[in-house]
Design brief:
heterodimer; A: mainly alpha; 68% helix; globular; B: mainly alpha; 2 helices; 0% strand
Chain lengths: 518, 52
């Protein structure tokens, strides 16, 4: 029998549901915008083939939306049941953007999706176009608020600890909203969604072109997808670089782990292109480095060093010691109706989260030995090999997308012949944006460990005091539910891709095109 | 079966499954109630036992 604790099981359950939910999200983000672009072309030109293209891709968007909707609500279930202490400790801040997302963005999107599907004959062209743009806007606003909440976990700004209520409380909503981590993460994530939508359209369009089916719609769709995809893939890389900078400012250990960088990299800091991280010996073998690049990404300079894992562990050790006086005071006064942090402990309270790391090692942490404090400091290192490889595969895929979209865009814009092998390459690249997006989440969230709120609350202190069996059974329930849902989704998508646009909507009426024309 | 019926059936399945999962594992009675004193005890009580 596996001996897995509640914290690990709860993390596994949350990771499963989040990663599954995120299979649907990027396609919704990207495809909704592509629908708006295609319909805009239809309204501006009056050419029916663009309306037909919008309707066809809208059908696939509808399947994805219907299958994906509410798959994220299970995470809300878990907050209350599996993560009660986390929800109590930070719910005052974390809950605000989540509530706004539900009330504002999701309702906007979900309501207008109905108008998109049933409004073709009831609304004027311009009215329907406005609906389609609002669906895309709603989807993107949803992403904004979710990422504002998520980014607060990575960079907890605009809040302070209240020892009377024993939780973090909001002090500045503006700081939470304009959190630089949220801003950079939002634009990076939605761009990744646009890449996913573009790849979806380009791959399926390439499939039709290879078989000489629905060529009118396929040719135009591929042209839009290639150009939109190229712009989006370039954005992902550029905005990902900005995300790297904010991470370098706020989560130095994550950057060090992504780089498998044990010692401080002197200025101008080099980026490790390839290497084999050796955790046991705290080194990276066969490292191939690119001069200056890490300094430019993480510090926007060539004269600043980038701290390595070992000095960051030493810093964590100091912060654990600094947080202990606040902990000792909290042990006596915390939760009391008159508890006020003494002025002399203001600095110590900022490191309280670090002191909490010792709770995993011994309950009476004020009596921790030097060796135990060092052990707790070592626990601030995330899983180096996983981060190192996830990041590099994600980045490599990002550059591959630029090359693929760029080449396809070049070929379609020159109206030259496209070889079948190249179309097959585009077709078989379909799953790759999802791989990149999921790896991005792993880098961001697995790289946050051991914190549930960076520097404030360790993950193992966010869980509920519930029996492990409860989490095991609900986890099994989710696996079963999501597996069935995934099968239904795949069956429906494949079925309606095979059917393709209906006869009157295949674009062939207006302008027959040769199968190899682009 | 038309697409709207297929999606309707899938949504019905999802609604039933989510309701069941909620009732079985996440209903209000299963969610622990956390108060300031409970949170203080959880974070600082020396009798608090780590699973490790």
């Amino acid at each position: 029998m596996l001996d897995i604790d509640v914290a690990t099981l709860s993390r596994l359950q949350f990771a499963l549901t989040a990663l599954y939910h995120f299979l649907f999200v990027p396609l919704t983000l990207g495809l909704s915008l592509l629908l708006a672009i295609m319909e805009s072309v239809y309204v501006m030109t009056g050419r029916v083939v663009w309306r037909d293209a919008t309707k066809f891709w809208g059908t696939l968007f509808g399947i994805n939306f219907a299958m994906g909707v509410a798959t994220g609500v299970t995470m809300e279930f878990q907050f209350g049941t599996n993560w009660a202490h986390y929800s109590y400790y930070v719910g005052d801040i974390f809950g605000v953007p989540l509530a706004i997302e539900g009330l504002m963005a999701f309702f906007l999107e979900a309501t207008l999706v109905g108008l998109f599907f049933f409004g073709w004959k009831r609304l004027s062209q311009v009215q329907h176009l406005a609906v389609t743009w609002l669906v895309a806007l709603g989807a993107n606003f949803s992403a904004l608020w979710i990422l504002v909440a998520n980014s607060w976990m990575l960079n907890p700004v605009g809040a302070r600890f209240n020892p009377q209520t024993m939780r973090m409380e909001l002090t500045s909503f503006a700081e939470v909203l304009f959190n630089p981590v949220a801003q950079s993460k939002f634009v990076h994530t939605v761009s990744a969604g646009y890449v996913t939508g573009a790849m979806f359209v380009m791959s399926i369009g390439a499939y039709y072109m290879l078989r000489g089916r629905h060529v009118g719609i396929a040719r135009r769709s591929v042209t839009v997808a290639a150009s939109f995809g190229l712009a989006s893939a370039l954005s992902v890389v550029v905005l990902g670089d900005e995300s790297g900078y904010t991470t370098g400012l706020n989560q130095k250990m994550k950057i060090a782990a992504i780089e498998a960088m044990w010692e401080t990299e002197p200025a101008p800091a080099s980026f490790t292109l390839f290497g084999l991280p050796d955790v046991a010996n705290e080194t990276t073998k066969y490292g191939v480095k690119i001069p200056w690049v890490l300094g430019l990404i993480a510090t926007r300079s060539i004269d600043m060093p980038v701290e390595g894992i070992k000095p960051l562990v030493a810093n964590a050790e100091k912060r654990i010691r600094d947080g202990l006086p606040a902990y000792v005071w909290l042990e006596k006064e915390g939760g009391g109706p008159t508890a006020e942090v003494p002025a002399k402990l203001e600095a110590s309270i900022a490191d309280l989260g670090y002191a909490f790391l010792l709770k995993r090692i011994r309950p009476d942490i004020e009596n921790a030995t030097d060796a135990q404090i060092h052990e707790a400091a070592l626990s601030t290192i995330p899983d180096v090999p996983v981060l190192f490889w996830s990041f590099r595969i994600m980045v490599a895929l990002g550059f591959y997308f630029i090359a693929l979209f760029g080449a396809y865009f070049y070929l379609v814009s020159r109206r030259g012949q496209i070889q079948p092998w190249f179309r097959k390459l585009a077709m078989y690249s379909l799953p790759l944006p999802w791989v990149a997006a999921e790896l991005g989440w792993i880098v961001a969230e697995y790289g946050r460990q051991p914190w549930i709120i960076d520097g404030v609350l360790p993950t193992f202190l966010g869980v509920s005091k519930v029996p492990a069996s409860n989490v095991v059974f609900s986890l099994l329930g989710f696996v079963l539910f999501y597996t069935v849902l995934a099968v239904i989704d795949l069956v429906l998508i494949v079925k309606y891709v095979r059917i393709g646009p209906s006869a009157e909507h295949d674009g062939s009426i207006e302008q027959p095109v040769q199968a190899t024309a682009n | 079966m038309s697409l709207s019926r297929e999606i309707g059936a899938a949504l019905a399945f999802k609604a039933v499954a989510l309701t069941l999962i909620y009732l079985l594992f996440f209903s209000g009675s299963r969610a622990p109630v956390v108060t300031p004193s409970e949170m203080a005890g959880f974070l600082t009580d020396s009798r608090w036992e780590s699973k490790h």
